[in-house]
Amino acid sequence: MSDRGISPEPNSPGLGMILKGMLLLGRGRAEGIAYFGNTRDSVLAALAPRLALWLVGGGLTIGTAPQAISGVKVLFALCLILLPAVVTHALARRWKREGLWLRYITAAWWTDWVTLFVGLAVALLMALASPKLLESATGAMILNGVEFGYSLWLTWYVARIGLLLRRGQAVVLVLAILGSLGLLSMAVGVLSPNQRAWHDFLYPLLVQQGQGSAHR
Fold this sequence. Notes:
Blueprint: H1 15-26, H2 40-64, H3 68-94, H4 98-129, H5 131-135, H6 137-162, H7 167-191, H8 197-214
């Protein structure tokens, strides 16, 4: 079956189908796109885990430092979540692929989690092969490089399959996402040059998790 021969009907798949679709797309299997819905409810379901983390992180950020800059960090994090959807929807309209966008963004948001699993798998392999390497700066560079490279490929692949794009168009979409996120980060840096909004937004959540683990 060719990549462009897939035209599944809209559906409301359960978690099992979503996981199967994630694994298929994560391995470069185009048929995985058929396991994601093409409805607004499917999009909201894919967005829900991200918003849940955003709400928890936002609450901890504001609770830790109830200042105006905390609100900026929370809004910045929300923009990071939603901006790729805005950019890809604009490109889908331009390329006359708007009818495919709901399924695409649903698949894109769900398959983003595959990168986390890949990173965990690489970290486990490194720990088994050489624990010292995993704890070193070189190990961190390898792990981050693998995760970033895989994330770029997966973003490109899901866009190509989900929106039925040519290879070059999918590259343009990936670059547009990266460029928009870069511009957003630069804008935040100009407005608050002494703040690292994304890092500071996540830090209270990471500390909270670390404290919870220590008490177990």
